[in-house]
Amino acid sequence: MNELEHPLERTQISEKDIFIKLLTSPREAFKFINDYKYEKHLYILLFLAGMDRTFDRASTKNMGDNYSIWTIIAICVIFGGFFGWITYYIYSALISWTGSWMNGKGNTQSVLRVFAYAFFPSIFILILLIPQIAIYGNELFKSDNDLYSLASMESIVLYVILFVEFALGIWSLILCVIGISEVQKLSIGKSILNLLLPAILFVFMILVLVLLFQVID
């Protein structure tokens, strides 16, 4: 799209306000990102989102039982940051594909841009993770941690942080739905369905393979 053809649209949102718009007017922000293929912060955001996802997996997989805190940090930063974006790229390709079944628009790159900017709350989650690691260390990633039996004030602080992280996660999810709706020109309901379809297809394929192996045996 030639910017000279739509000078007024270009001035509706400035680049420095993109993140504020994601908070106050997300559909307008995603329209700007999609129309002008805005990718200034794309790879930094994907890097941080990959880190956040890997830290979360490190906690759920209880990696602290087998690795030191510095090893966990290195794994999350290096593998999560540098390779996590591959997962988002594959997921974006699937979203683009399944979206076409519902006459959705947008290619893989346009969907990837949505995810990158929708996951920007992960920056705040990572910021909140810093004091948690400083205070609790490896206990955050252990299966037998006693974080929930701490003194009352420490418990309150931990629960507040967890609540904020949960709220930021919900915020990211809402941004994903709105972004997919804008980029693929789908209703909110169809956008939610399209976000779920790749997982549904994956589970279906696993079930088919299991049934095939059972028949063969």
TrEMBL record:
The chain crosses the membrane at residues 67-91, 111-136, 156-180, 192-216. It is a multi-pass membrane protein. It is found in: Membrane. GO terms for cellular component: membrane. Residues 21-208 form the Yip1 domain. The keyword Glycoprotein does not apply. Keywords: Membrane, Transmembrane, Transmembrane helix. This is Yip1 domain-containing protein.
